[in-house]
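Worked example

This section walks through a single chain of length 178. The input is the sequence exactly as stored; nothing has been trimmed or padded.
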Amino acid sequence: MQLNPYGEYAVLLAASLADDWPADREGILERIYAGGMTGVFEAAPDDHARTRDVIDEWLRVVDAPTPDARAELLNAQMATAAAYPRLTNHDGEGWHLHYRGADQGLPQVIRAVITVGTALHLVTRGMHRLGRCAAGEAGGPACDRVVVDVTRNGRQRFCSVRCANRAAVRRHRARLPE
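Given that input, the structure is written out below as tokens.
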């Protein structure tokens, strides 16, 4: 039985959108469908801009300085999601849970999915498992990509192996005698 259908997927989707914002509404749809999300969303002229607003608001959660601040921001965002959990069996996929109404538009659905998913991710894995790449802290050029820690040990600090390796090289070179 899967109890956390949106946690990891939703927070990784939000990070993907934040780090590489699609040029248009179709790009958003391609990204969410590639991740396994389903549903047809009636197009609205402001979908792209309103979805960007949702992601920018979510980034405030990523950048929150403390777990309490993170929880407060996330609670406020979930309160505005105006979604409710419901069982659905659309397209004959089998019964599963959605955190959204059937007639909500793209920005509203994205808000509901990523806020609930982020909350599930943080409470099941730890409030510290979301942040920005630590490459800049290691004395190198700053990297502002989002890090969603899905590792077993809960100690992921870099967005990629590339940033982690660059930081390791900088630390190594700093220890070498001149």
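What to look for: The chain has a mean pLDDT of 88.
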